[in-house]
Amino acid sequence: MICKTALLLLVFAATTSMASMNRQTYIVHMDKTKIAASHHSLGNSKEWYEAVIDSITDLSAEEEESDSESTSPQLIHVYESAISGFAAKLSSKELESLKKIDGFLSATPDEMFTLQTTRSPQFLGLEYGKGLWNASNLNSDVIIGLVDSGIWPEHVSFQDENMPPVPSRWKGACEEGTNFTKSNCNKKIIGARYFFKGYEATIGKFSKITDYKSARDSVGHGTHTASTAAGNLVDNASMFGLANGTAGGMGYTSRLAIYKVCWNDGAAAGSDIIAGIDQAISDGVDVLSLSLGSFISKPYNLDEIAISTFQAVKKGIFVSCAGGNSGPSSSSVTNTAPWIMTVAASYLDRKFATTVELGDGQTFQGSSLYVGNETKQLPLVYGETAGGNKNTIFCAEGSLNRERVKGKIVVCDSALIFSRFEQGEQVKLAGGAGMLLLNDEKQGEERALVAQPLPDSSLGFSESKAIKEYLKSTTNPTASITFKGTEYGKPAPMMAAFSSRGPNAVGPDLIKPDVTAPGVNILAAWPGLTGPSSFKSDERRVLFNIASGTSMSCPHVSGIAALLKSVHNDWSPAAIKSALMTTAYVHDDKCGEIADVASSNYTAATPFAFGSGHVDPEKASDPGLIYDITPEDYLNYLCSLKYSASDIAKFAGKDFTCPQNLTMQPGDLNYPSFAVNFKRSIDNNTVTFTRTVTHVGIPNVTYEVRGTEPDGVSITVEPEILKFENPGQKLSYKITFTQRNGTVPRKTSFGYIKWSYLDKYHVRSPVAVTW
């Protein structure tokens, strides 16, 4: 990524001619259940919306517009499917009248942007018609398998218009089930299966009322990840008008194969996951995307996902997994097998801004997905003044006193044990007029958002401390919330506080996660009958939803891997992984170090947060050098871990035994990064590893090595120059890490080495030294 000043994006209200002085286009969201109950005599929703428009006509606006083409409110679009509502051109008086209609949810000004996704492809450097998104590079025969919660097949993101026939090599099937027939598959969704027997064996039979016993998605998670990986380009995508732009998957011409293993409570049985992976391998997918994992890391020989995905890699399938959402705790990263691309989550350069003003004049910048009007200065209540229950500070169910809360803004402490949407719902049920959601020290400056049912603002730890001090300073605290909508230009990427961290508890000789990718407040497709919060009580409907997690960053990398597979169909999974890692960048778009929002002062993140750095798809397509790894190399690595023959057999089958005189140490695996472990009890630690690189760039090049040494450690590379004559040539080097005399051991220090050819190729590998 080239370090440069970010361009400002201009946002315009959607208005036309002289009427722009009086009427503006709004996207209006309506509660469909209330419409049906109140206006059942009308034939369809369009007729009812037309009746609403007629009833709110602003005659004064008509008089002012008598010389223009538009002399009455104009119904522009009616949304019959996922979104309940319409788009219309309204005057300010008409908008106020509309808000009084039973069933009104929200109205946001229509916005037009320069062509961008919401917003990942542009941030990642992908541009329509160029580079990896050039028509000649967009191979539509790459198949991405998603092991997730299913898919909403009718969504516009999954239409198959102008797609070529399904690849003849495809062996998958479209399994029928509840509200899902073979016709729900097409040339985009070329396969759909579901696996539930393990779930039912553990949890018991579930009702078809609570979930679809089919590949249809009732949770939303699978639809969101599928469209992030390979959804079609869809113009004017937004959620309630926020994040407006062109939504599209990273590998938007790729095919999708769906393997539903997660059910309505978000749970999945390990046996079902493995069955899904097993079937995906047999069906012939090229990329496997798994936005799921365990809370606890297990040794690879006990990790069924590690074992089953190894079989996928043996077949040439690239595997991408979410690294987990248990950050910023140390050693919380999961899915850490070396053949898995473990993905962390970071921020885009986009925010959904609010301003919170306290009664004493202090103002704070927060974030929110709410799109209604700003609040007035209202009384502010917290803890005892909101209810007195021990859980009142969390706004937990039953903890708020309606008499104390009604018409006021309620302050709630954020906590992992309570859903943020549930907290907002409880405030609304108790009659609250708004909510301030405050982070604790561990959450830092996190701004991962959910669409709340009332005016709200999420605030970081530093702002939260100041607000609590204000609450102590006065007996009559007040606050107001102003909503600024979508803004661009903040420093990015920044590491999400929730993103799980290294060091790797299972394999300390590997830095994990491997890379980071966009995973915070990502807009992507959503099921037509699921509210944006996924809670049954949420009756709102959206076509696209904003969600956060390493579940969102993982399919970004899956889609990018599909693009690289299109361009380099002879590359192994390890080669693709190496290209993504060695070309990743570690600075933000303002030329500063990637920050960690887990700290209130935004200190620099480390490779234990972002691995090799933030993915750069275009650079990964021409990396210069790759660190390739064969299945046998991985097996020898497992042998170096002293696994038993029976453990090795889980991965290799019966045709492999560990070499009797194996000299390989775990750190000798040909990995694109270096994790060095020194002993505190030794004063002169030293370790040497071997690496082999394959040249995949232009012929006749000479690479030189340089880098930055970790504190207290010297690095020696032999040789320091590598000369390649032809693509495909392999050369090896040794790298030695030595503790400097007199060095006082610290927990971990970081550095890097980089092989460079002029300014064309820079092949970077992070170094982490841990005592």
From TrEMBL:
GO terms for molecular function: serine-type endopeptidase activity. GO terms for biological process: proteolysis. The lineage of its organism: Eukaryota, Viridiplantae, Streptophyta, Embryophyta, Tracheophyta. This is Subtilase family protein. Gene3D superfamilies: 2.60.40.2310, 3.50.30.30, Peptidase S8 propeptide/proteinase inhibitor I9 (3.30.70.80), Peptidase S8/S53 domain (3.40.50.200). Residues 25-115 form the Inhibitor I9 domain. GO terms for cellular component: extracellular region. It comes from Theobroma cacao. Residues 140-599 form the Peptidase S8/S53 domain. Residues 1-19 form the signal peptide. It comes from the Eukaryota. Belongs to the peptidase S8 family. Residues 377-448 form the PA domain. The active site is at D148 (charge relay system), H221 (charge relay system), S551 (charge relay system). The keyword Protease applies. Keywords: Glycoprotein, Hydrolase, Protease, Serine protease, Signal.
